[in-house]
Amino acid sequence: MLDIQRLVAGYGPLVVVRDIDLSVSAGEISVLIGRNGVGKTTLLRAVAGHRRATEGSVAVAGEEVTSFPPHRRARAGIAYVPQGRDIFGTLTVKENLLVAVKAMRMRDPSRRLAEILDMLPLLGEKLQDRGASLSGGQQQILAIGRALISDPKVLLLDEPSEGIQPSIVAEIAETVARIAQERGLAVLVVEQNLDFVAKVAERVRVIDRGQIVANLRVEDLVREESLQHQYLGV
Ligand SMILES: Nc1ncnc2c1ncn2[C@@H]1O[C@H](COP(=O)(O)OP(=O)(O)OP(=O)(O)O)[C@@H](O)[C@H]1O
Ligand SMILES: [Mg+2]
Questions:
Q1: Which secondary structure element, helix H or strand E, spans residue 9, and what is its range?
Q2: Residue 146 confidence (pLDDT)
Q3: Rounded to an integer, what is the distance from CA 111 to the centroid of its chain?
Q4: Residue-wise pLDDT tens for the chain (234 aa)?
Q5: How far is the CA of 107 from the CAs of 76, 79, 113, 149, in angstroms?
Q6: Which residue has the least CA distance to atom 26 on ligand 1?
Q7: What is the whole-number distance in angstroms between the Cα of residue 127 and the centre of ligand 1?
Q8: Ligand 1 contacts CB of residue 11 (under 6 A)
């Protein structure tokens, strides 16, 4: 569903992501881990279209989107939840969702909204609450709900458990796993939290200095502190 080939991206002369090859199929959750500053966010930005790739290609369901700006990639089926979530704190949950509805110029927004509330019932209970009043976990669910408005084929999540109470991390992971399965979504998630990772995947890819350097079993990573030290810097 998502096919990334030999992707190179960075900031001006600074090359941050090098030669990334990665495919995620429908219903699959693919996890990337790596130390701080190795290029995880830059990779997701390059897939979402917020950074232009200098080489390589990105395709969704066979359609090449490499030259598309972000809004056209969204139309092609890529949804992106950035690190830190970026929800509007002064707007209500409903208004946050409607911003996405407007951005997509949807034909039947009320039906889509109802579907989202069906998938993420928590949001239905909080519709009139302001974004800033939600807990970290609730904000993450809102950010995911907002991303799903476009009925994407691919969902990019950048550290969804960051800033979330440990007791809620597993819940967020289960929600992501359920949605991926129910919607046949291809999910590419950057995550450092092993509790989250263990709930959604059996294997992880490790990114270091912009390249995929290893493909590990989550079980081994959880068990072996030396691997965590080597690849996560913890
Ligand atoms: N807007 C920018 N302009 C220039 N350099 C940037 C910019 N954003 C990130 N970088 C650099 O690119 C490199 C990779 O950053 P990136 O944010 O992709 O890493 P990351 O793996 O997501 O890190 P973290 O774990 O801290 O989120 C870093 O060296 C960073 O300083
Ligand atoms: Mg990052």
A1: strand 2-11
A2: 94
A3: 24
A4: 999 999 999 998 899 999 999 999 999 999 999 999 999 999 999 999 999 899 999 999 999 999 999 999 999 999 999 998 889 999 999 999 988 887 777 777 788 889 999 999 999 999 999 999 999 999 999 999 999 998 999 999 999 999 898 889 999 999 999 999 999 999 999 999 999 999 999 999 999 999 999 999 999 888 888 888 888 887
A5: 16, 18, 12, 12
A6: 36
A7: 34
A8: yes
* Domains, in order of start, for the chain: 2-83+154-232 (3.40.50.300)
Report helix, strand or coil for 139. Answer: helix
Mutate which of 7, 42, 207 to test ligand 1's pocket (most atoms within 8 Å of Cβ)?
Answer: 42
14 CB under 6 A from ligand 1?
yes
Distance 42 CA to ligand 1 centre (A): 6
| 124: three-class secondary structure by DSSP | helix
In angstroms, what is the span from residue 177 Cα to ligand 2's centroid?
21
pLDDT at 199: 93
- CA 179, CA 3: separation in Å to the nearest integer? 20
- Ligand 1 centroid distance, CA of 41 (Å): 7
CA distances (Å), origin 231, targets 62, 162, 173:
32, 18, 21
CA distance 134 to 140: 9
One DSSP character per residue, 195-219 reads HHHHHH-SEEEEEETTEEEEEEEHH
